[in-house]
Write a structure and sequence with these properties.
about 325 residues; four-stranded mixed β-sheet; 10 helices; globular
């Protein structure tokens, strides 16, 4: 009888231990190198979540498109192949124009403007993602977008016929409007495409230029500050709903902290990367008035086109953004 008592006690102890150490494990695919500031922020976010949940939720970050390619991550999260993931929103503009809100050249060109555009976009974005079985946890802007080029450019005419990297519908549209040859290249493939001459120019941030060693292949960066696209961390709604309320709260709090930290670091990196590119021998150039005039004309065409496609939701976003701009202007006076 005593032996049976010990056996039952051991089983009970084992069950308690199993309950105490029950852990939910999530995979988080991301498209950019582990050394990129977005990836570093993701890794810190994952550490914060594990600490805040006392190990109940562990998130493994898979950087540099090692688990899914950039254009596969959203579908993977939506279908439950990954519980959580980081995507570049503008990549999915063909699916729905709302995803491309922050890829319109010269609509929002500063961090303050970009943040206000995000605030205007977020309610519509939340609704869109919810309809697809997902939830937005946080989003962080990239540094401002400029033009990397092999040769000097003084106007859009100098870009005609050039092999141009198109990583999103918006950058593909720019190629069409300026008469360049669009070539679809994602971030993980960019270094090789540059080294082999597959592309000769592209628009992106100083961050991407530095990460991919663009300075080894292209010698000019024109600081147009055209737009600040955002990376968004999205979670599968069923996976989120399966968490207990305390874990959900810890996850969303850590996400909020990651968002604030990410925007701050992005603004700091905007300055840092331009200096780093210059230190590597790249000419960081203030665009000529003619080039800026040409590119802003491209932006105006793209905004008009986007508004037609985005319909009432797009109108609501632009109206809210313009209203916030007026409020911000009044506050400064």
């Amino acid at each position: 009888m005593q032996r049976r008592h010990v056996s039952f006690a051991a089983i009970a102890l084992s069950l308690c231990a199993g309950t105490a150490f029950a852990q939910t494990k999530w995979d988080l695919p991301a498209a950019y190198p582990a050394t990129n500031f977005h990836s570093e922020n993701l890794i810190q976010f994952a550490k914060d979540v594990e600490a805040a949940t006392a190990g109940k939720l562990k998130i493994s970050v898979h950087a540099n498109a090692s688990l899914f390619k950039a254009n596969e991550i959203k579908r993977a999260v939506q279908g439950g192949q990954a519980q959580i993931g980081e995507v570049l929103l503008v990549n999915f503009e063909n699916e729905n124009p709302i995803f491309g809100t922050d890829g319109i050249p010269f609509l929002a060109t500063s961090y303050a403007d970009s943040k206000r555009l995000y605030d205007a976009q977020k309610p519509v974005l939340d609704k869109l993602l919810a309809g697809q079985g997902m939830k937005l946890l946080y989003a962080v802007a990239w540094p401002s977008q400029g033009i990397f080029a092999k040769k000097e450019i003084n106007s859009v005419a100098d870009l005609r016929g050039i092999k141009w990297r198109a990583y999103s519908p918006a950058t593909g549209k720019i190629a069409e409007l300026i008469g360049a040859q669009p070539v679809t290249i994602q971030a993980a493939e960019l270094s090789q495409a540059l080294a082999t001459g597959v592309i000769e120019s592209y628009m992106s941030s100083g961050s991407t230029g530095y990460d991919t060693k663009t300075y080894e292949s292209l010698k000019y960066f024109y600081d147009t500050q055209a737009w600040l696209p955002k990376n968004a961390v999205i979670v599968n709604k069923k996976a989120f709903d399966a968490l207990d309320p305390t874990t959900q709260a810890a996850l969303t709090k850590s996400a909020s902290e990651a968002e604030a930290r990410g925007w701050k670091v992005s603004a700091e990196k905007d300055v840092y990367y331009k200096k780093a590119l210059a230190d590597k021998g790249m000419k960081v150039v203030t665009p000529s008035p003619k080039l800026m005039q040409d590119m802003k004309q491209v932006g105006g065409i793209m905004l008009s086109d986007w508004q037609k496609r985005a319909g009432p939701d797009g109108e609501a976003i632009i109206a809210a953004y313009n209203q916030s701009e007026k409020s911000a202007s009044k506050a400064k006076k």
